[in-house]
Design a protein that fits this description.
single chain; alpha/beta; Alpha-Beta Plaits; 9 helices; 35% strand; globular
Length: 285
């Protein structure tokens, strides 16, 4: 089993990939990719058998590159979800008072603004493709530091200058395990889908969302992304709680379909939650 994730070694994506492989009972070879879209593209084009990507952070919201790629490759299916606690560390090879540049993934930088303002107010913040890539880039420098995981510190031989540094204690990210098995929607307490509307007119979105309410379905998340075709045209990503199985969702989608230009069900799936002590709780249907 070839399993792609956002690399290099030492990312939170690698942690999530290992947890999800264990939950699914997969004997996997882990294949790092240089970006989130590259992870999904590797799966869609057959370069790997499964992929793990971040879809949502509790502080920064949806991971837009993941949402855009899912819409681009509608034949992929979500098999499992995982909520992973995110505990950022400041890593480097020099003292805190000598740091003038902080490198990390944009999401990680955005999760530590208050800590950086309090402790490194004059440091330049530089975005990288991943937290582990930031750790790799700062190795050997006494004026550069990276925001990354403790795993990245061990992998790249860096000192832990400060830990944890994320502003929100409950910071966590939801990851998805994807495969090319869209012939079945799977099963579990959570379903993810996306749709675009037939027309941008008053009440169109309200009518579409009413299809879920009519079946008593709770939308635990709704997020919009530009279609990239014209201003004011959007794609809507929705997560639905399936407390009573798939039948109510099937009926809702039948009612929703005439309102949509395109409607994609990414699947229903179990969701595992890891707490700060690395204990796993899995909710199954």
């Amino acid at each position: 089993m070839r399993l792609a994730y956002l690399g290099p070694v030492g990312t939170y994506g690698e942690q999530a990939a290992k947890h999800l492989a264990a939950l699914e009972g997969l004997e996997a070879t882990f294949i790092p990719q240089p970006g989130i879209q590259a992870v999904i593209r590797a799966l869609a084009e057959g370069d790997c058998d499964a992929a793990v990507v971040p879809v949502e952070n509790s502080v920064e919201g949806g991971v837009t590159s993941c949402l855009d790629a899912l819409w681009q490759y509608p034949d992929l299916v979500i098999c499992h979800g995982l909520v992973l606690p995110i505990r950022h560390a400041l890593l480097g090879s020099g003292p805190l008072d000598g740091i003038s540049e902080v490198l990390s993934h944009p999401q990680a930088l955005a999760q530590c603004p208050q800590w950086l303002a309090n402790h490194l107010p004059g440091a330049l913040q530089l975005p990288t493709s991943s937290t582990a890539e930031a750790a790799r880039l700062v190795r050997g420098s006494r004026f550069r530091a990276a925001i990354a995981s403790l795993d990245a510190a061990r992998e790249h031989g860096l000192e832990v200058i400060a830990y944890p540094i994320n502003d929100v204690v409950g910071n966590c990210t939801r990851f998805l395990l994807l495969r090319r098995e869209h012939s079945t929607a799977g099963s579990g307490p959570l379903a993810s889908l996306a749709f675009s509307l037939q027309a941008n007119r008053p009440g169109a979105l309200l009518e579409a969302l009413g299809c879920f309410a009519k079946e008593g379905l709770n939308m635990s998340r709704i997020e919009s992304r530009p279609s990239k075709r014209s201003m004011g045209e959007y794609i809507f990503f929705v997560d639905v709680d399936l407390m009573q199985g798939m039948s109510s969702l099937d009926r809702a989608m039948d009612t929703l379909r005439p309102h949509c230009e395109q409607l994609i069900l990414f699947g229903a799936y179990p969701l595992a939650i890891i707490n700060q002590q690395e204990e796993i709780n899995v909710t199954n249907n």
